[in-house]
Amino acid sequence: MLGIEHLSLFVITGLLLNMIPGPDTFYILARTLAQGRRAGILSVLGISAGCLVHTMAAALGLSAILVASATAFMVVKLCGACYLVYLGFQMLLQSSRKEISREPALKAASGKVIFSQAILTNVLNPKVAVFFLAFLPQFISHPTHQTFLPFLFLGLVFIVNGTLYCMLLVLFASALSRQFKTSQRAAILLKRATGALFIGLGVKLAAER
Hints:
- By secondary structure, the protein is mainly α.
- The protein has helices at about 5-20, 25-35, 35-60, 65-70, 70-100, 110-125, 125-135, 150-180, 185-205.
- The chain has one domain.
- Helix 2 (about 25-35) runs antiparallel to helix 3 and helix 2 (about 25-35) packs antiparallel against helix 9 (about 185-205).
- The chain is globular and about 60 Å long.
């Protein structure tokens, strides 16, 4: 079908790859622990939307530009790293201000903000673009190599599997988040830990080749 080979192997491999922790996984877990199940679900949907962008880019051949051009890859990578660092510092500043003012709760980001941040976190990671361009063709037969529909189909299968797995992560993390909501001090510490995590991910992304 559509020139796709070894679909079952693709599904299994995709599930295993989704289980490897990365920036997307940490973003989902951090949002869920900080704001609960709804925030986690919106984060998952945002990450999935970002993966759909990468799928379309790979199908149209746009991701090949990142592979062929070191400059383009570097620009996208640095943009993604700066964005993660920005989110991290934003969270650290918010937690400090809330602690000083002694307000009863931390201001939660809106659903729209959470969703859009998740999309940008995924889209601005060039390693995801390269992954789709390198991984998907291995399951497409040579005569139909680099055609639109096989890329789109495999990308959607990968996204669906990843979304289901991440939803399970959200359910697990949301159970833990309830324990933090009873303590303002714990919520502030969690916010700071999340900010530090995002800064670390940004620095790591910027330093990787």
